[in-house]
């Protein structure tokens, strides 16, 4: 497969279809939007995805420092570096450090765009502990997110990517992973666990992505309440992975936040508080 795909010359229609598939399958874990019209925008150039480089508006900020993994000996520049990973076929979203209601936060702004704000940090399986995160989503009364009532999912997600035995991937997932490598320079993670706020699914519900079962979402909040306020969460990574995938996790490779918007939705905004990874050794001492 690896030797065949790079030699293929894809038509614009096929490439756009693949980009749309990967945009849904790589990082969202949701699939709340209908597939694009096959006849729409077939002549529009397809943007490559992949890592665009450091997130200049976030790297090195107080938010990045508060999100840095605990370690002895002090932090180094890599601990404070966050990067933008662009979803194939979409323009990059805007992520920037702000102070919001007295808190250090990252403001995500999207409009027909999508990219994730990612920090690569490896944690071995035996050291997987807790993840703590928070978000604040303005509603229409705040003059933003006017289309929220039309969406199934509120546009806030925390995304964890894991290592695993890739020989166990199905043919479909292996092909998706190879297409991901071609369009982004990176294979699809072995497993992706997404925490999200859903307007239709119930808290604790596991939602399997309808394009790949290697992405599974756990709903941490639901309904049409809680806008314009900070919502905070603490999750047991190992327990949640077992609940979602029915087995023990491999090593954690990265943690990210992800907000996306589609055409005709208008601008969507969300604030993210710092993401804190608490290793198992620190949890055990409490």
Give the strand tally.
Answer: 14
Strand order of the largest sheet: 1-2-5-12-7-8-10-9
Strand content: 25-35%
What is the top-level CATH class? Answer: Mainly Beta
Radius of gyration: 18 Å
The class by helix and strand makeup works out as: alpha+beta
Biggest sheet record:
8 strands, mixed
Helix content: 10-25%
Total domain units: 1
What's the mean pLDDT score? 84
**Shape estimate:** globular
Count of DSSP helices?
5
The end-to-end span amounts to: 49 Å
CATH topology: Jelly Rolls
Q: Which parts are unreliable, with pLDDT below 50 for 5 consecutive residues or more?
A: 1-10, 28-46
Give a written overview of the molecule.
The chain has one domain (5-285): Jelly Rolls, CATH 2.60.120. Strands 1-2-5-12-7-8-10-9 form an eight-stranded mixed sheet. Strands 3, 4, 6, 11, 13 and 14 form a six-stranded antiparallel sheet that branches. The chain starts with 11 loop residues before the first helix and ends with a helix. It has five helices and 14 strands. It is α+β, with helices and mostly antiparallel strands and 286 residues long. It has helices at residues 12-25, 62-66, 171-184, 237-245, 280-285, and strands at residues 50-54, 83-86, 94-100, 103-110, 114-123, 130-136, 153-162, 191-198, 206-208, 215-222, 231-236, 252-260, 268-272, 276-278. Helix 1 (12-25) crosses helix 3 (171-184).
């Amino acid at each position: 497969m690896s030797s065949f795909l790079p030699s293929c010359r894809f038509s614009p229609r096929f490439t756009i279809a693949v980009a749309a598939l990967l945009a849904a399958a790589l990082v969202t874990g949701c699939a709340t939007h209908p597939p694009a019209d096959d006849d729409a925008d077939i002549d529009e150039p397809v943007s490559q995805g992949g890592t665009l480089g450091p997130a200049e508006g976030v790297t090195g900020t107080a938010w990045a420092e508060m999100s840095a993994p605990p370690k002895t000996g002090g932090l180094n520049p890599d601990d404070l570096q966050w990067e933008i990973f662009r979803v194939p076929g979409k323009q990059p979203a805007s992520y920037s450090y702000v102070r919001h209601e007295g808190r250090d936060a990252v403001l995500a702004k999207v409009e027909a765009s999508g990219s994730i704000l990612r920090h690569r940090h490896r944690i071995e399986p035996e050291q997987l502990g807790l993840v703590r995160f928070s978000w604040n989503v303005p509603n229409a009364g705040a003059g933003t997110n006017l289309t929220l009532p039309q969406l199934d999912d509120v546009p806030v997600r925390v995304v964890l990517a894991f290592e695993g035995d890739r020989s166990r991937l199905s043919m479909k997932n292996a092909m998706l992973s190879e297409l991901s490598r071609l369009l982004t320079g990176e294979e699809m993670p072995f497993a992706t666990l997404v925490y999200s706020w859903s307007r239709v699914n119930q808290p604790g519900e596991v939602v399997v992505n309808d394009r790949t079962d290697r992405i599974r979402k756990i709903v941490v909040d639901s309904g049409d309440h809680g806008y314009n306020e900070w919502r905070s969460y603490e999750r047991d990574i190992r327990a949640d992975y077992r609940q979602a995938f029915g087995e023990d996790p491999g090593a954690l490779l990265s943690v990210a936040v992800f907000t996306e918007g589609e055409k005709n939705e208008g601008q969507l905004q969300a604030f993210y508080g710092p993401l804190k990874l608490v290793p198992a050794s620190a949890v055990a001492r409490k």
